[in-house]
Amino acid sequence: MIRKQDRRLKVGILGCGPIAQFAHFESAAKARNTDLYAICDVAEDLVQRMGDTYQPAKRYRAYDAMLADPALDAVIIATSDAFHVPAALKALSAGKHVLCEKPIGIAVEDVEQLAAAVKRSGLVLQVGHMKRFDPGLEAARDFVRDEMGQQLALKAWYCDSTHRYTMTDAVQPLPILSAGARKPAENPKADLRRYFMLAHGSHLVDTARFLCGELIEVNARLNEKFGAYSWFVDVAFANGCMGHLDLTVAVRMDWHEGLTLYGENGNDSLLGGNGADRVEGGGGSDVVSGGNGADTLYGGAGGDTVTAGEMRAYAAEGHFKAGSMGPKVEACLRFVDAGGESVIASLTEVGPALAGRAGTHIVPDAPAARTQTPRRAAQRTPARKKTAAGQTDEKPPDRRRTTVARPRREENP
Ligand SMILES: NC(=O)c1ccc[n+]([C@@H]2O[C@H](COP(=O)([O-])OP(=O)(O)OC[C@H]3O[C@@H](n4cnc5c(N)ncnc54)[C@H](O)[C@@H]3O)[C@@H](O)[C@H]2O)c1
User: Residue 407: CB within 6 Å of ligand 1?
Assistant: First the structure.
C-alpha cells in the first residue's frame, strides 16, 4: 500500500465520466501526496455511484459550490474539451491549482487568454499530457538531454487501429455512463478532422515538443480515404532539428506509436523497431508484439517478477481470455523461450491472477526446467555505440524501469 505523506493536496475532480473513472479517481486517491477530497458532476447518478465507490470527503453537483470550498487546494478538469478553458479560468479565479485534461482548449485565442490568466494568478496549471510520465519517454528524454548532443531529425508516429476495441474492450473496465451527463452544444465529433487532431494529435505534438522543444514551422498534408485520415506533418524545431509526424486514424493493423530521433552522439532508436537493442511499446502499450532478436521487450512496464512457467500456469487456470490476452501472453512466452532475456508486460497481460500489482516482469524458467532453444540474442554481434569521441563502445546495460504508465486511449467515432 502506498504510504501517504503528511502534507497532501486536497483535490477535487470536475467530471465523473470515463476519464475520471479510468484515471483520475484512483490516481488522486492513491498518490502519496494527494487526497481525493471532492468530486463533482451535474449527473446525480454518477456522483452517487462514484462517491459510494471512491468515498471522497465531499460530493458536489455544482462546480461553483466545489470551488467555494476553502479546504479545496486543486481541481482536476475531466470534462469535454469545450469546457476546459472556462472551467480552468473559474478555478484560477477561485485560487485553485489546476490539472486539466488534454487538449487544453479548442481555440488558440481561448488558450492564450488562459495562459495570461495563469501568469496573473501565480497558480499552477498543468495539462494532462500523461505521456511525459511514461517511463519509456522519460528514459528517452534523459538520453536526449544527457547524451545525444545536437538533434538532427525526428520521426514520430501515432496510429490508431481499426480493431482497437476488439483489443481494449476485452481488457478495460466498462465506464459507467449517465443520460444526465453535460455535453457541449456542438457535437465534438461532427468534424472528425478537428476531433482527431485535438484528441490524438495533441499527444503526438506534445511528445515531439517534449523531446525536441519548441515548434517553429508546421506544414501538414492530409489524405482522407475509406473513412481513414492520415496526416503527414513536416515540422521544424527552434533547436534546428527537423521532424516528420505521422497521425493516422485508423490503420488496419495494431495500434502503434513510436519515434526515432537522430542525434550527434547516437542514433539509437528510442522506441520501436524489430531487432532494436531495446523495444518498447511506448505509452505502456497493450500489445506485446515484435521484438525479433531484441534483448528486452517492453509492453508497458511493470514491477513483479514471475517465471514463464508460472505464466503458463496462470494461463492454464484460465486467467487469460481466449482470443484477446491469450496471444499476447503466448507472444511473451515465445519471446522468453527464444532467448529473450525478459518481458515486462503490462497489467492487462497479467489478468486477475495478479490484480492489484503494478505489472509483471516475465523471466525465463530456471535452466533445468526450461526448454532449451537457440539463443538468438547470443548469436548476434554485440551492438556497438559511437561515443562523442568517435570510438565505439560496447552497448551499455539496459536501464530497466519498473513503474506502470497505463495507456489511455481516445475513442474512435
Ligand atoms: N489523456 C488521455 O489520453 C485522455 C483519454 C480520454 C479522454 N481524455 C479527455 O478527458 C476529457 C473527458 O473525457 P470523458 O470521456 O470522461 O468526458 P465525458 O463528457 O464523457 O464526461 C465528463 C463529465 O463531466 C461532467 N461535466 C461537464 N461539465 C460539468 C460542469 N460544469 N459541472 C459538473 N459536471 C460537469 C459531465 O456531466 C460528464 O459526466 C476530454 O477532454 C478528453 O479529451 C483524455
Answer: no
Task: From the CA of 18, give the closest atom in ligand 1.
Answer: 16
Contacts of 199 (CB under 8 A, 6+ apart): 81, 103, 410
Cβ 182 under 6 angstroms from ligand 1: yes
State in Å: Cα 232 to ligand 1 middle.
Answer: 29
Residue 170: how many other CB atoms lie within 10 Å: 14
Residue for cell digits 514471475?
306
Let me know how long the chain is.
Answer: 413
| Backbone torsions φ then ψ of 245, nearest 5 degrees | -110, 130
Determine how many CB atoms are found less than 10 A away from the CB of residue 184.
Answer: 12
Question: For the segment 95-128, what is each residue's pLDDT rounded down to a tens digit?
Answer: 999 999 999 999 999 999 999 999 999 999 999 9
Ligand 1 centroid vs 18 CA: distance in angstroms?
7
Report whether 32 contacts 3 (CB < 8 A): yes
Alpha-carbon distance 312 to 332, whole Å? 10
Q: Which residue's alpha carbon is at the smallest distance from atom 7 of ligand 1? A: 19
Walk along the chain (413 residues) in steps of 10 and give the mean pLDDT of each run.
91 98 96 97 98 98 98 98 98 98 97 98 97 87 88 94 88 94 97 97 96 97 96 98 97 89 66 31 30 30 58 66 51 70 52 42 62 33 35 34 34 46
**Whether the CB of 40 sits within 6 Å of ligand 1:** yes
Query: Which residue, judged by its Cα, is nearest atom 18 of ligand 1?
Result: 17
Q: In what order do the strands lie in the sheet with 256-263?
A: 215-225, 228-237, 242-251, 151-161, 256-263
The C-alpha atoms of residue 203 and residue 258 are separated, in whole angstroms, by 12
Ligand 1 atom index nearest CA of 411 = 6
- The CB of 46 under 6 Å from ligand 1? The reply is yes
CB 98 within 8 A of CB 126: yes
Q: Whose C-alpha lies nearest to ligand 1, atom 24?
A: 15
pTM of the model: 0.71
Residue environment code for 293-318, b if the CB has 16+ CB neighbours within 10 A, otherwise e: bbbbbbbbbbeeebbbebbeebbeee
